[in-house]
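Recap slide: Small ribosomal subunit protein bS21, sequence and predicted structure.
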Amino acid sequence: MVVANRKQNESKDSFFRKFGRAIMEENLVDEVRKRQYYKKPSLKKKEEEKERMITRSRRRRQATRSYFRKPFRKTI
């Protein structure tokens, strides 16, 4: 839950900026977009599996890159 208190001498613009930052920190916009339409549980499951596969492939790529990368050598 986002709570933003307005100070006495604070302008409306700065208050709205502060409120917007608080909403972004709480990820409320993303949550509202996710819940805007109903998704069947099977579709949610497929999307989660797809995200897992993407992260696995990224980690695999990074691991192979670091394995074949030449070590740093100091030259004197």
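The mean pLDDT is 87.
Residues 12-68 form one domain.
(End of recap.)
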